[in-house]
Specification:
- This protein is α+β, with helices and mostly antiparallel strands.
- The protein has four helices and eight strands.
- It has a five-stranded antiparallel beta sheet with strand order 1-2-3-4-5.
- The radius of gyration is 15 Å and the shape is globular.
- The chain starts with a strand and ends with a strand.
């Protein structure tokens, strides 16, 4: 469990049978739905990729306000350099009713802290370019495009070694 510097009630929690339905019911704004997969798909991917997926509910007090999933130590390009092992942000869904309240920033910072604690020096993320893109959000958090593309998405990196 990760706690926030913002409020002691804000935290990341593993998804449990008790909150599974509430987490799956989360939905982003309709204009964002084409940019991020539904939570249920993320949880299915977490099940299939259990060794590398780190799914968490974003909880404020007793309320689930979002979902975040990190990927841990995956071979980025198995056909390329086998030492190119990366970790980062796989999915971020903030409930439409709870956007622009700092929950996304908290979740990304909590994932960065988790990765840093596991010894990672960088965190990666990808995003779709186009209307409603989360690009300004990620750039504002310090991610910088690498020049790579992954499945047509921009790849960006955040240095975890600095302040």
């Amino acid at each position: 469990m990760t706690t926030s510097t913002r409020t002691p009630s804000l935290r990341l929690e593993p998804v449990t049978p008790d909150d599974f339905d509430a987490v799956c019911a989360l939905s982003v704004r309709p204009d964002q739905a084409h940019l991020v997969a539904p939570v249920v798909k993320s949880l299915a991917e977490a099940y299939v990729h259990g060794e590398t997926a780190w799914p968490r509910a974003i909880v404020d007090g007793d309320e689930i306000v979002g979902f975040v999933m990190a990927f841990l130590d995956i071979a980025w390009n198995p056909a390329g350099d086998p030492r190119d092992i990366r970790s980062g942000l796989w999915r971020l869904n903030i409930s439409a009713a709870h956007q622009s309240k700092g929950y996304g920033r908290f979740a990304v910072e909590a994932v960065a802290a988790e990765l840093r604690g596991r010894g990672a020096s960088h965190a990666y993320v990808t995003w779709h370019v186009g209307p409603g893109t989360p690009e300004p959000f990620y750039l504002g958090l310090g991610f910088r495009p690498t020049g790579e593309q992954s499945d047509g998405e921009t790849v960006a990196v955040l240095d975890l070694t600095g302040p």
